[in-house]
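Why do we care about 3D structure at all? Because function follows from shape, and shape follows, mostly, from sequence. That is the central idea of this module. The next example makes it concrete: a single protein chain, its amino acid sequence, and then its structure expressed as tokens.
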Amino acid sequence: MRNKPYKITAILLAAGLAVLSPLPALADTPVITAGSSQTGGGPGAGPGVGPGAAPAAAPNAPDQVVPVVEKYSYDQMVQDLNTLQGRYGAHLQVHAIGTSLDGRTLYEAVLGNPDAPKHILIHGGIHAREYMTPLLVMKQLEYGAEFYDTGTFRGEPYSGILNSVAVHFVPMVNPDGIALSQFGLDAIRSEELRQQIQQAYQEDLAQGRTQESFDRYLTRWKTNGRGVDLNQNFPANWDLVTASPVPSYGTYKGTSPLSEPESRALADLVNSRTWSATVSYHSMGNVIYWDYPGNQVQQASGELATVVAGLTGYQTLPSSGHGGFKDWTQIKENPVPGITVEVGSVSCPLPLSQYQEIWNSNWQVWILVAKYAMTH
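And the structure:
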């Protein structure tokens, strides 16, 4: 999420594209590779300016791997990626793309033909307290793998679309912050980081940025393990970002663009290949942000937003923050069309009661965007 001048309670996030450069597996967790089968219906593309018809409910996979739980953790995600790889190895590849400050491997899962002519990127969990988005992205990945060989979208087999467009999922960009928000200070391994988090709390108290108890404060944590907002850490007018001048639970942009290993991992992924589209999942507001001053792919981003709004029923809005992932990918050399999708209708962390509506609205977004990329 990100502070915006709009009346919506949603907060801006950045969507972007990324590229796959398979990095070596890191020692703390095994690396993965897999694939399988699918189904599905086809969303209509509406004007994307407000809620539309209720989204169709998604069919369930017969033997689900990814559990629908309120606190979907990093360790659970790694376990699920391994299980999915073992089950669907023909269609799914998993790569390490970096390491977080606290030593957690960052993963990318690629569904479809890795040598496809087109590629799209979907990521979640860049903000700590928005940890329902990694669950959503992992369920999309599982659904696509399960129905790879049997599913259809607007009458076209998933397998045909995924032969032409590889879908890259980065489910959890900020695993340290998510662990902290979910389980508290003991979830952080590094003593140095624990001390920095405690210092951030004292500074936020002193500056009036919070009045919460320490435990409650941590549940609201948004930044990475040393208090940097990863979605204000990209080179998109980074010097114009005005927020906390020091590490904080919420809005510190870091010492320089891409100062954090997590943001660098995404940037390296983006720079590793040519992308057709990117989707960044954030919470909350049920809106889609698609534009940014200087956007070099404005028309394509607007069209993508309209198509996704037609499926989800979410409202579309431009965005005016700085330092965001989507913003950077839209203005950089070799720009990429992208959108930020803000899911949920209450403050983060979202309760589990929000999940079913979010899933019903978003379960086909990944294949819709792949189909869009195939034909544009």
